[in-house]
């Protein structure tokens, strides 16, 4: 299903930027909320409509909208070539690969993590994966306006392409006998980090195509971290190490 509405203050403010990857057609506000924002909307010629709280709830199917929503143009996924040829802010490219992330809140959180740690883009499968919807945009808290997302038919092919053509090292976050601590990884190269499905982890097929399997040291009191938490820990390490190379 195509993305129709986004909601929440921060996602909409981010989408108002002229460089935003999400384009707003019309904003909906509950009663007399966000008076100052109305002036900004007029200045960029974006129409708005005042509606009741119940109408907003009905429109979105949720009450967690912060009294603001927007009708947006269809989200345009990046092609693989567009993603890999994007202007990077770093000497080395950083890509997040998500293997069948089904929870929209986890998906949105990981998009926010990727943006917050200066990753250049995110690659997802075009099936068995949470779609980009209002809940994802809300959880991403504005990140979808700045982080490119690429949909592919086959993650294995995408990984092989990154390795062979673009000289990427592929990291997979998983707990196996071959796993090494994430903070021992050398970040002085193009890197792609794979985070797996919340329940099943990374598929065995993908693990066979990775250069390193990395793990996060963790107390014996719990089995593992949430997928988005693990993503944040490793992505931030890569970000900090990248800053040292600048």
From TrEMBL:
Keyword tags: Methyltransferase, Transferase
Domain of life: Bacteria
InterPro entries according to UniProt: Alpha/beta_knot_MTases, Ribosomal_eL30-like_sf, rRNA_MeTrfase_TrmH, SpoU_MeTrfase, SpoU_subst-bd, tRNA_m1G_MTases_N
SMART domains: SpoU_sub_bind (SM00967)
Coiled-coil segments: none
Residue ranges of every copy of the RNA 2-O ribose methyltransferase substrate binding domain listed in the record: 5-78
CDD domains per the UniProt record, alphabetical: SpoU-like_RlmB
UniProt cross-references to PANTHER family, sorted A to Z: 23S RRNA (GUANOSINE-2'-O-)-METHYLTRANSFERASE RLMB (PTHR46429:SF1)
Family of this protein: Belongs to the class IV-like SAM-binding methyltransferase superfamily. RNA methyltransferase TrmH family.
Name this protein carries in UniProt: 23S rRNA (Guanosine(2251)-2'-O)-methyltransferase RlmB
Origin species: Spiroplasma ixodetis
Organism lineage string: Bacteria, Bacillati, Mycoplasmatota, Mollicutes, Entomoplasmatales
